[in-house]
Amino acid sequence: MRSRLVLALVAAGSVLLGAAPAAVAAESVAAVAAVPATAPVALGSAHVLDQVDVLTDAEEQALEDRLQALPDDGVELWVAYVDTFTDPADAADWANTTAAANNLGPNQYLLAVATEGRAYYLSGDSSGPVSDTQLTAIEQDRIAPALRSGDWVGAATAAADGLADAAGGSGFPIWLVLLVVVVVGIGILLAVIIARSRKKAPSGGAAPAPPARSTADLRRDAASALVQADDAIKTSEQELGFAIAQFGDETAREFSDALAAAKTDIEQAFTLQQQLDDETADTEQQMRAWCEQILQLCAHADAVLDEKAAAFDRLRALEQNAPEALTRAQALRVEVAAGTDAASARLETLQTSYAPEALAPVADNPAQATQRLGFADQQLSGAQQAIGAGDGSQAAVHIRAAEEAIAQARQLQVAVATLGDELAKADSAAAALIADIETDLATASSVPDPDGRLAPVLAGTRRQVDAASALLAGDARRPLAALEQLEAANTQIDALLDGIRDAQEKSRRAQQQLTQLMTQAQAQVSAAEDFITARRGAVGATARTRLAEAGSSLVQARQLAASDPAAALGAAQRANDLAAQALRAAQSDVGGFSGGGFGDTGGGGGLGQDVMGAVLGGIIVNALSGGGSRGRSGGGFGGLGGGSRGGSRGGGFSPGSFGGGGTRARRGGGRF
């Protein structure tokens, strides 16, 4: 995008000056190509990473000293100066990816500055001491002015000062600050109690209204409720699947209807969350109203599932029929375990043809599936022991956990094959699109070009096709990335030839473009959905919202494909973009989660890793914390899964208690 923008600006300027556009374009392309692009970096022991030497040695040391003192205020800050951002190119994505890759925790922040790209972003976890609103204010009021004036040290120092102020830093040790706060709080509480004991409330007087919650708090509550409700629905779907397999569709009809009603509520809530997250500016009143609606919709969905929970328990009767249920679960475990080697072999085959980036969503799926099955083995053993002791209630807890773990293992295995199939479709679609573009290039080359306007367009299209072709060659192919480049090239050449095509040809081309884009969008949605569902214990509201909206847009594209191809194309493009955002956000969440404080509690594998896999999968088991209640525990129809980073609604434990925290997804940063 930056290259095209520079090229357009330089070419426009050349026309005004009477220069030859082609010559200027070539020079501008060379100039742009000379600017190196930087992938996410590894942060070392120092807090300042200056890859472009914009700081003198003295400036770098002074800044390092300032940042070394920052932990006294309860926060830490790293600063990275690079040329331009790439993989991903978006400033926020680049900074958040770098933060996740370096295991930065909730109290640790990263300021990323692209000195040539003229972009920046301050990355921070939403569960940290500095709110998203405060981070945005620090960017706009402190960092951006310094960057615009070329004050690289001043920008980082301003970020440090802003974080310290927002975190309530005072220069005193953090424990002393907290102690003072506690003592003052106790004093205020005692004063209030004494005052109330001396003051008789008027009879019949109305209780004072509670203070209004801030909009930021409402947004956090809404996002947390949305994650928990989505988890409850996913677990309900899983349990309903077992019930249908055992009793048939008709017997489980009322539960299917209840689940459908709850999903309708959550789909509306996701749409509202997307409105909160999009680039359109919202008023304070709109944000508060949408947050309240999200909370109401989540509460209603939860109530709908709760209403059927007792009846669902009676249908499955796991407590009374635990031995039979255990036998079924054991048989299912054997069946799913047989697919582990096949999934590993399929992944190894794919790795000989596709680049690691293309296979990233399933790269650890066989290992994750093995962990889920290991966890299932523990639960099946616990169920056997509980049955032997005559404790049907505890046996039911273990059986449910085993069932969900086995189902996730199967899903992880299937996802490998699904991605392989989608990549093969993308390969074919890309090859077909290249053939079409080559034909168009040949046609366009025969069109008279007296003023030389066509030449730069043809040259640009040729570069895009060549770059995409390179992504389709060798043993490290990236067909989805190639399709993106080819679609851009196709759009460019189509605009050029639009005036010489007849209506029939235009219709054919539009339908072909729609088919190709829907292929790409379906692949993106499938990959994001499989990744998020099997790792939902770590995934926050941002990724789930983007995925829900992507799925909705893809359905809309299919519905409009025959009647309104142009509108369908826009819906398919939105689905593709949102699904890609969902996957990036989910991968960032999982990266922060796996390095966010719990690590490997099993000494290199075994019980600890299997339990952590179950935590990552959102499987919450009361038995692990001494529970055993038959209640929903926030997990759907009688289930036990479905906790969240925001905490669990019932017994057991949730991934949030293992250092998960919030998300680094936030609108902010920008250009300077």
From TrEMBL:
Carries keyword Transport?
Answer: no
Q: Where is the composition biased (Gly residues)?
A: 635-663
Q: Which domain of life is it from?
A: Bacteria
Entry keyword annotation includes Transferase: no
- Cited InterPro entries: TPM_dom
Give the signal peptide range: 1-25
Q: Offer one Pfam family short name for this entry.
A: TPM_phosphatase
Q: Which residues cross the membrane?
A: 172-195
Q: Where is this region: Disordered?
A: 635-672
**Which UniProt keywords are given for this protein, alphabetically ordered?**
Coiled coil, Membrane, Signal, Transmembrane, Transmembrane helix
Q: Locate the TPM domain: which residues? A: 48-165
Q: Where would one find coiled-coil regions in this protein?
A: 301-335, 486-520
- Which protein are we looking at? TLP18.3/Psb32/MOLO-1 phosphatase superfamily protein
Q: Which organism is it from?
A: Microbacterium telephonicum
